[in-house]
Amino acid sequence: MEYIYFKDPNGNFGDDLNGWLWPQIFGEENLNNNDAFLGIGSILFNNHKIITDLGERKKIVFGTGIRPIYEAFKYDNTWDVKFLRGPLSAYSFNNQFEYITDAAYALRFVESYDSLKNTEKKYEVSLMPYFRSVKYFDWKSICDKLGYHYISPLSENGVEHTLKEIAASKYLITEAMHGAILADVLRVPWNRYVLTTPVTEGAMVSEFKWMDWLYSVGLNDVTTTFIKFNRKTFLNNWLKKMSNNVLDVEFVIKHKIVEEILLKLDTINQFYLSTDENLSVINSRLFEKIEDLKKQLL
Fold it and tell me: Which of 182, 85, 196 shows the shortest CA–CA distance to 131?
């Protein structure tokens, strides 16, 4: 069985969880077995290269999410859907398959989970941006001004290090969905903000996947902090041309956005966790799916 997931060349905590988590639960990849395992990620959509490259191989879906497009997802008898991430993904399959929640909750069945969860708290508030927003702002500087601890979404020091950083936080503020998900798994109250995802990911995709997960864990009334983000403007191009590249309105806009980031993120005082009751149900259902798949792989 091969673990299939999106691999960003610069790293991305959410996607990179796959390569760290699944070998601990199902064992190392067995390339003599041609099955493809799809776990954490929003990679179920037609014409995605990850999907088309799999061809006629058997595809095991284990908590993967739909990425919304304007046509139904096409599948055939090569697909073995164990469960989907949430109700929106299930609806996209005409509710033919069940959903549980995001597959990252399987972290609770890793041997080191209790140790991770009980990491000593070192940070009052930590902040994890969306991985595609790292290039736009100096997040370490922003965190320093806010008195927050910066957690990189790129996981340069490895997935386990990032998990420990989240677990060492009393609260997490994040635009990265798997920042919030792993905070929830590790029982660290979290809050979501929106800044770059409407531009870098697409508002429809971002909201769909967040709602898919939130509804799956019974969080239907989360208040999100929205910060307006302008990546490029016609005015900037015109001004740079007229001034022979001396004037740059994007620098001015960026400065204003940073001011807005500092203002908005400094006022966040409401944090969220799924209930212990919902988590208990998720644990039971995930345990059954993990054990069933282990038997299937024997």
Answer: 196
8 A C-beta contact, residue 240 and residue 247: yes
CA–CA separation, 241 and 264 (whole Å): 33
Answer yes or no: is pLDDT of 275 > 60: yes
Please answer whether residues 227 and 195 qualify as being in contact, where contact means their C-beta atoms are separated by less than 8 angstroms: yes
- Residue 296 and residue 298: Cα distance in Å, rounded? 6
Name the residue with higher pLDDT: 46 or 244.
46
Query: Quick one: how far is CA 189 from the chain centroid?
Result: 16
Sheet holding 225-226, edge to edge: 149-150, 123-128, 169-174, 190-194, 225-226
CATH of 113-274, one of 3.10.110, 3.40.50, 1.20.120, 2.60.40: 3.40.50
Q: What percent of the chain has pLDDT over 70?
A: 91
Q: State pLDDT tens for residues 128-186.
A: 999 999 998 999 999 999 999 999 999 999 999 999 999 999 999 999 999 999 999 99
Residues 6 or more apart whose Cβ sits within 8 Å of residue 196:
129, 130, 132, 133, 136, 175, 229, 231
Q: Where are the domains of the chain?
A: 2-110+279-297, 113-274
Torsion on CA atoms 65, 166, 143, 215, rounded to nearest 10? 30
HSE value, Cβ hemisphere, 13 Å, CA-based, for 221:
1
pLDDT greater than 50 at residue 235 = no
pLDDT tens for residues 48-60? 899 999 999 999 9
